[in-house]
């Protein structure tokens, strides 16, 4: 009970006096601390928990503090020693902050004030030094987006650096009077610019077979869509104009892709900016894309006829035998190495000519980039 008189902000949390929790007051500052004993009066092996500010101040003293804790006669005498150490550390910190070129002690105070004003519910991650933190915002469709900040030591005089997963870069408007809330509001305003883009990409990702990328990020504007076992469409969408005609590249055997290219060129004037990206693509190609709801991935993907794998590092088997009776696909690098190993192959510039490993019909492949 003597301890509670000396430390009035500390309370006993159970009847057998093995758990104490509260605030330790040092030079006008309050530090949260919690102590759990294994048995009443037994300090050896006890648990000591504290907030990050105390841990930061006592960094380098932890082994000494635990040793003194086990040597003290009571929790009260230990807390008195802990107070003296904290007073010494705080006094040293204040003296250092007064030296030219040293970091201002108001750095953490200002940062904590900014975080309180912003709202801790918007903070998803923060490191112990408060130099890196992640903020999360929702767009109009309740999609979650994060911005990761690097806080400089001379914040807020210098703007924090940041990374994000938006399809376009943006610059922060920043003055020395700006705060984290300003960053968050500018970030959220920027998200509003890409609502139609993410709506279009979400529809693509959910309704058709996307071959690449396997796990697209919110910043990714490209998709490779399966058109069937023998063909795919590589497209790049304009993030600020997602309903405009994207750049398109047809991949696969010519006997499959040539009719699709012809439909594309003939119907391009039918592109309707009031319709969705997916709807317009199906209209001008005059086809319905294979869907995960009606087809399996095996129906739209075929393994390489040489290495028997579908994905080889970053390659898909998009080189195909032109003979419709064969139509076997290969990775470009696999087919190149195979043809080059055949004694009857010939080469013209960067193109290798040879025979299909399956049907022996003529086949060509470009030399893959080194």
From TrEMBL:
It comes from the Eukaryota. GO terms for biological process: interstrand cross-link repair; protein monoubiquitination. It comes from Capitella teleta. One of its GO terms (molecular function) is ubiquitin protein ligase activity. PANTHER family: E3 UBIQUITIN-PROTEIN LIGASE FANCL, UBIQUITIN LIGASE PROTEIN PHF9 FANCONI ANEMIA GROUP L PROTEIN. InterPro entries: Fancl, FANCL_C, FANCL_d2, FANCL_d3, FANCL_d3_sf, FancL_WD-rpt_cont_dom, UBQ-conjugating_enzyme/RWD, Znf_RING/FYVE/PHD. Residues 3-87 form the Fanconi anemia complex subunit FancL WD-repeat containing domain. Residues 302-367 form the FANCL C-terminal domain. This is RING-type domain-containing protein.
């Amino acid at each position: 009970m003597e301890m509670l008189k000396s430390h009035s902000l500390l309370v006993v949390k159970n009847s057998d006096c093995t758990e104490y929790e509260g605030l330790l007051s040092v030079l006008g500052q309050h530090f949260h601390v919690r102590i759990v004993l294994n048995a009443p009066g037994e300090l050896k092996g006890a648990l000591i928990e504290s907030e990050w500010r105390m841990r930061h101040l006592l960094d380098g003293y932890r082994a000494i503090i635990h040793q003194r804790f086990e040597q003290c006669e009571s929790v009260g005498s230990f807390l008195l020693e802990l107070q003296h150490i904290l007073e010494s550390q705080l006094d040293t910190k204040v003296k250092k902050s007064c030296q030219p070129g040293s970091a201002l002690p108001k750095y953490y105070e200002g940062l904590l004030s900014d975080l309180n004003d912003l709202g801790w519910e918007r903070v998803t991650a923060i490191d112990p030094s408060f130099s890196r933190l992640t903020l999360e915002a929702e767009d109009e469709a309740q999609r979650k987006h994060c911005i990761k900040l690097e806080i400089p030591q001379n914040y807020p005089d210098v703007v924090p650096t940041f990374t994000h997963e938006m399809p376009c870069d943006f610059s922060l408007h920043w003055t020395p009077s700006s705060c984290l809330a300003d960053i968050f509001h500018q970030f959220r305003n920027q998200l509003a610019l890409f609502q139609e883009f993410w709506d279009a990409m979400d529809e693509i990702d959910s309704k058709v077979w996307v071959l690449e990328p396997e796990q697209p990020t919110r910043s990714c504007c490209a998709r490779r869509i399966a058109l069937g076992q023998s063909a795919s469409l590589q497209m790049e969408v304009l993030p600020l104009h997602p309903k405009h005609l994207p750049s398109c590249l047809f991949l696969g055997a010519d006997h499959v892709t040539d009719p699709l290219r012809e439909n594309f060129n003939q119907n391009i004037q039918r592109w309707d900016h009031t319709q969705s990206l997916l709807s317009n693509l199906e209209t001008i190609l005059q086809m319905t894309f294979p869907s995960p709801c009606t087809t399996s991935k095996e129906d739209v993907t075929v393994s390489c006829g040489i290495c028997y794998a579908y994905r080889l590092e970053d390659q898909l088997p998009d080189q195909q035998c032109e003979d419709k009776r064969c139509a076997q696909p290969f990775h470009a690098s696999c087919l190149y190495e195979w043809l080059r190993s055949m004694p009857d192959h010939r080469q013209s510039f960067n193109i290798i000519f040879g025979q299909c490993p399956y049907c022996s019909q003529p086949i060509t492949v470009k030399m893959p980039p080194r």
